[in-house]
User: Which sequence fits this backbone?
């Protein structure tokens, strides 16, 4: 039988230390490319192979955006092997060049590009594949090729572009490639998306089989995200990276700011919004066809804010990653609020937002707590929850003043000592004392009682936990309602559009309109009303700089814990400030609220210029001297 005709020697040099091998074709029982593309059923398996390299967003093991930044903290040595927090080492300053913690992503994504290239080179040979389906498959894999390149650029900056697979008899010098300039990388990614986007289906016709496959709204939305990223300060006129050059002298970062990039990005965002609307997508709100109890507006707003993440394939989800179902992360995020079964080992209660994230959410007036002229005027450290707080905080409970009078996204996103945790089997908000709540001080059910279990800051991530998860009477029984990880949703697209428009023309009415769409679902008044009436800086939303600050905080609040803050702080070039702020929590070793609610520094983050981009493995650089290391490594 004829051996495989093509192999990417380039990928061997980049990822495997120069050891060229014949491709192990997936599935394993297909020995040659001729067999893999002789019929539709086998080619479809190869299509799914191309999908299999999708980054596992939301994975505590693989996704750096979850634990490699400052949004969530965790135990240093979890007692559960399946929760091995390798990426947490990056947040703790342990990234290195000998064995980078990001190396698996580098290797996997270049393997994915190899297989995407093989598919595109051979799918035309499949005899029993209808032409329309062939076009859609080609578009899907072209999209994946764009996305894998984009994932590499976000991590490493300029990378070698894989445009074509190389013949097996290519000269070795042709394999030892250079890194491409970052603008060339973005241009190529956009070119691929432009090729793919209009050959993709607007919606999935057969949801039972096709949900998770690439669609036209996904392609348009990714293009918008790519162009917003390219227009952002990390990649647009970044003079701090201007010394990064290839050995042949090619400058890899253009130091000149190009304002027109924002114009292009704004156009792409609006096109993506229009395509999503034409596909029937809209901002999600909680409005079930049937509900057992007549719920209060407070509860319904919070369920809408939680459900936009946890209700799979809801009206706002543009892209749900079926390669990364949210199962384990729910076990790690939730406290055991059913205090009858507190020893349940399936509930780990570990993901912990630092106090900086808690403080980031607005007051109930819709402005930052540091700007709200009405918030916590007495400067109290603790307060006792009264009747008017009972749907958010257990009535009569003493908790931090920081937890009072906050916006609905605060209560929908965070669990805290004394905080009501709606759901998990208790659904009647007309009897609030029957609802579950967190009791998080030392000696209480949700306090730090074990060295390998519990929140290290005193807060929990409610947003990622489906409200219908239930714990039974059996000690290890915890039923999880899983969902595909939401990579992109309509609110994110609105936020990017507002950001790009503001950079182009300042705070126009359209900028405010799209921000206010997000705020309306969150139960807040408009930006104009909130700042005019409650902010110490009422004119903030009328200037480009002020509106930029509002948009960025709105983005971090709305998308909290979804894996975006990590990348946004980088592209905005704010990481040098934010990632140098210490990780703080409450003093969880205390039981008395007067002592529990004292700030305690858990870790002093270290972030320098070099940390904006990750190191290429030393072995790879030795193998291919044409590659250059990132600055500072």
Assistant:
């Amino acid at each position: 039988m004829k051996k495989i005709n093509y192999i990417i020697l380039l990928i061997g040099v980049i990822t495997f230390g120069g050891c060229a091998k014949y491709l192990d074709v997936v599935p394993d029982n297909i020995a040659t490319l001729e067999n893999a593309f002789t019929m539709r059923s086998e080619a479809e398996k190869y299509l799914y192979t191309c999908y299999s390299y999708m980054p596992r967003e939301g994975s505590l093991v693989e996704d750096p955006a979850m634990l490699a930044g400052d949004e969530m903290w965790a135990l240093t040595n979890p007692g559960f092997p399946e929760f091995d927090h390798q990426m947490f080492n990056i947040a703790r300053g342990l990234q290195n060049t000998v064995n980078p913690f990001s190396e698996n992503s580098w290797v996997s994504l270049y393997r994915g590009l190899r297989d995407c290239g093989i598919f595109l080179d051979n799918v035309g040979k499949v005899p029993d594949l209808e032409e329309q389906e062939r076009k859609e498959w080609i578009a899907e894999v072209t999209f994946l090729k764009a996305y894998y390149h984009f994932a590499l650029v976000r991590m490493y900056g300029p990378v070698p572009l894989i445009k074509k697979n190389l013949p097996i008899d290519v000269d070795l010098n042709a394999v030892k490639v250079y890194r491409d300039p970052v603008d060339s990388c973005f241009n190529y990614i956009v070119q691929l998306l432009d090729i793919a986007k209009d050959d993709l289906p607007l919606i999935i016709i057969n949801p039972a089989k096709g949900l998770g496959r690439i669609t036209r709204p996904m392609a348009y939305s990714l293009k918008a995200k790519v162009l917003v990223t390219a227009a952002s300060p990390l990649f647009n006129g970044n003079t701090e990276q201007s010394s990064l050059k290839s050995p042949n002298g090619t400058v890899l970062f253009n130091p000149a700011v190009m304002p027109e990039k924002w114009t292009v990005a704004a156009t792409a965002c609006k096109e993506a919004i229009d395509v999503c609307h034409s596909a029937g997508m809209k901002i999600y709100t909680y409005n079930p066809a049937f509900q057992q109890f007549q719920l209060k507006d407070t509860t319904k707003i919070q369920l809408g804010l939680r459900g936009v993440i946890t209700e799979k394939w809801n009206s706002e989800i543009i892209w749900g990653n079926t390669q990364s179902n949210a199962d384990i992360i729910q076990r790690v995020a939730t406290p055991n609020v059913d205090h009858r079964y507190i020893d349940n080992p399936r509930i780990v209660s570990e993901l912990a937002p630092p106090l900086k994230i808690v403080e980031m959410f607005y007051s109930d007036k819709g402005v930052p707590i540091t700007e709200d002229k009405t918030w916590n005027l007495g400067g109290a450290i603790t307060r006792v929850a009264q009747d008017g707080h009972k749907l958010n905080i257990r009535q009569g409970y003493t908790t931090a003043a920081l937890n009072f009078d906050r916006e609905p996204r605060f209560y929908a996103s965070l669990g805290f000592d004394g905080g009501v945790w709606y759901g998990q089997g208790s659904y009647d908000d007309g009897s609030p004392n029957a609802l579950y709540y967190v009791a998080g001080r030392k000696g209480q059910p949700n306090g730090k009682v074990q060295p390998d279990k519990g929140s290290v800051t005193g807060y929990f991530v409610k947003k990622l936990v489906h409200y219908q998860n239930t714990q039974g009477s059996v000690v290890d029984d915890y039923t999880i309602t899983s969902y595909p990880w939401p990579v992109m949703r309509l609110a994110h697209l609105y936020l990017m559009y507002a950001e790009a428009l503001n950079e182009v023309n300042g705070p126009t009415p359209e900028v405010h309109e799209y921000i206010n769409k997000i705020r309306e679902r969150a139960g807040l008044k408009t930006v104009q009303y909130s700042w005019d009436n409650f902010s110490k800086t009422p004119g903030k939303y009328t200037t480009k700089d002020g509106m930029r600050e509002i948009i960025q905080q709105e983005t971090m609040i709305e998308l909290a814990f979804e894996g975006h803050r990590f990348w946004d702080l980088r592209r905005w070039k704010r990481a040098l400030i934010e990632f140098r702020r210490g990780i703080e929590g409450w003093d969880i070793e205390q039981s008395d609220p007067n002592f529990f609610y004292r700030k305690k520094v858990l870790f002093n983050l270290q972030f320098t210029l070099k940390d904006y981009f990750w190191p290429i493995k030393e072995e790879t650089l030795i193998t291919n001297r044409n590659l250059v290391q990132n600055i500072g490594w």
The radius of gyration is 25 Å. Strands lie at 317-325, 382-384, 398-400, 414-416, 459-461, 470-471, 478-479, 484-489, 583-586, 599-603. Residues 237 and 254 are 6 Å apart (CA to CA).
